[in-house]
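Box 4.2: Ligand-aware structure prediction
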Amino acid sequence: MQFILGIISILLAEVVRDIYHIAGHYWQPIKQFHLLHHKAYRRDFSIANLETYKKSQLYNDVPEALCMVGLTAAIAILTQNPGMWLGCVYSFVFLVPAVLRSQGMLLATDLSHKPGDLVEIPALWRVNRTYHWRHHFDETNAYFAGHFTSVDRVLGTSLSLKGKVVAVTGASGALGQGLIEELSRQGAKVIAITTNPAAVFRAGTTALSWELGAEAELLPHLQGVDILVINHGVNVHGDRSPAAVYQSYEVNTFSTLRLTELFLSTITKSNDRATKELWINTSEAEVNPAFSPLYELSKRTLGDLVTLQRLDAACIIRKLVLGPFKSQLNPYGVMSAPWVARAIIFLAKRDFRDIIVTINPITYLLFPMKELFQSVYFRLFTKNAKISANPMSGNIVERSTSKVN
Ligand SMILES: NC(=O)c1ccc[n+]([C@@H]2O[C@H](COP(=O)([O-])OP(=O)(O)OC[C@H]3O[C@@H](n4cnc5c(N)ncnc54)[C@H](OP(=O)(O)O)[C@@H]3O)[C@@H](O)[C@H]2O)c1
């Protein structure tokens, strides 16, 4: 029991840290001091100016740690529970180095501000350097969490779409239009990638034509894209002719695979790992019947390949696992595409990597289990021989030379 209370007090200390941090962005009396913290680092997290760094420790990090110590101590005293003191002891671990750094007696930064290239993708539950880098250099009014990502997940600040260049395939379809609307509302600059030259999009959207099989021609455009949403798809319903088999796999699986490889080949810079994302619309047909066998087969293959690719992903790859919504592809859908689009963005901003939006409760149960077992199985029985000692160069060399054509 005392151990559990101790863990709770540590979590409380982290919540205090995050609240203090958010206040540093919105509450005038401490805003100027928090600004020092932002000025202290260059884009590679090296210290920009030692005096600013020391000042930022004294006026930002020390008071932040003092608040953590003070509030956790107050809670321990009020609850009169020895376990609750653990959060206070934990907070001291941050107070002491902050004091030493403010006096120039410790120059090593904490782990989230360690200088150098970003080598990981943003972590899901614990704040790593790449996660925190986005707070400094992507959007300062998001990614507030200091240690555990929970506060951002609650606030919807785990992903900022403001100013991001987001490209959507299948743009003229029902969900494509819904996503364009919602992404634009969130401040993203949207590129509508469409095979329909006559398609009309909301004002402010850039339209880009492409055709199946000519994915490589999109490469120059994808270089500047932050988030690619691969959303196009086809449903041949009851047709089981050879042409239907070919079309289902070509549209739903292989073109998506080619676009995935193409997009991953654009991840060349350290910060691309932090800002670039790939969202792939698979479908709940990954785990449930869609009463269209070829649709299921092609989407399941796609889903499995995405699971495989996520093992070595050079950026965040999200799966969109959607239930039936009304569109040309599914005239019997029960949800509406604009509502599904809003739900997708809501969950993406809370860093759901598997975005499940459906009315079928079984999917919420089956999909995470399938995804977990599948990824463990793939991890155990496959290896990526081409990934070198430097994970950054490994992915880039491999992806820029293979499969794209
Ligand atoms: N509706 C559902 O119940 C449901 C459920 C789960 C998942 N999904 C998935 O959601 C995505 C969007 O579907 P939707 O329901 O919005 O259907 P939709 O309105 O029919 O949109 C699909 C779009 O995909 C593009 N497309 C179709 N055939 C193509 C081809 N041969 N080559 C390249 N692009 C092609 C077209 O967009 P452009 O003309 O702009 O290129 C089309 O408008 C699909 O991946 C679908 O599988 C749908």
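In the box above, the bound molecule is NAP. The radius of gyration is 24 Å.
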